[in-house]
Amino acid sequence: MRTGEIRYFHDQLPQDAHRRIYEALEDAIAKRATNMRLKVAGDELSIEQLQEITMHVYNDHPEFFDLFIPKMFYSIAWHTVYIHLAYRHSNKVAKIHMEELQTAVDRFITDCFPEGWRQLSEIRREKMIFDRLTSQVVYDFDSLSKSDLPDVDAWSAYGALVQKKAICHGISCAFKLLCDQVDIPCIVILGDASGRHAWNLVRIQCRFSHVDCTWLLRSSIDMTIPYARYRYFNVPDWVIKRTRTVEVPYLPKCTSLRFNPFHMQGLCASTCEELCKVLMSQLLYGQKRLAAMLVHYPVANEELNTLIQDISVTNSISIRWYLDDTRTFFGAICV
Known about the structure:
single chain, alpha+beta, five-stranded antiparallel sheet, 14 strands, elongated
């Protein structure tokens, strides 16, 4: 399994000592060692820093899905770091699971790219993986209350790709694992969205943007709303920050909408006049389901009601409209 080529968090760690611990952990987990001991010079590290480094290793390496982070133990004495590593399964079971994951990844890539992926653009590769993953995986609500049990795989790429059900962290790890296979730089990031949450950053043509597969699972959204499943696909910081806070340091800035489907289809509006043109253009092409992204546009319900009423009267149609809770994504259906 070709993973770990994009060790983003390793490269962003602020000190050589932190990177040495990361590399020692990386080597120990790859060998399924149960203990790691490393002498480090310089300032004394805290347990919180060690936990953060461990999480970075895990998020840079989705193939380390068997690591049981809640059961790991850390200690520091005389500039020596000791970490006891815990795993969810025995070596025998872990080997079977690894083979199952490898088979699932290979099958996914083959089915997603039957004619190969190297001739495709980065955005095309990313979107094909996104579409297939969000269509196959369902959210595992039952596992939310079982985060401390060793048999819960929903928190890992194994759950998402083999069992086809996972929670946000497992789905995000699966997306990174698949992107790694087709040379798309991808990062798993952690934060809060009315509760702990995980999603991804991807780099397409040197531009980073956010992708939240969990919030766009086909089984979890209203597919009648136009472009509903692309609301959080390749979006910049200002979109994501309306519903989430980020707790992971060292993240690159995401400022571009270039590879977001709304932008690529000319469905962005930053004024009421632009929104009217976007909607009218879709109606002229005979579309009955309308969509738009409101870019830095603090639209009020009264303004939208007036606009929709005017468009309805002009075109002799009835329109049922929708505005998401971030007041960024607008959808409408002509009835």
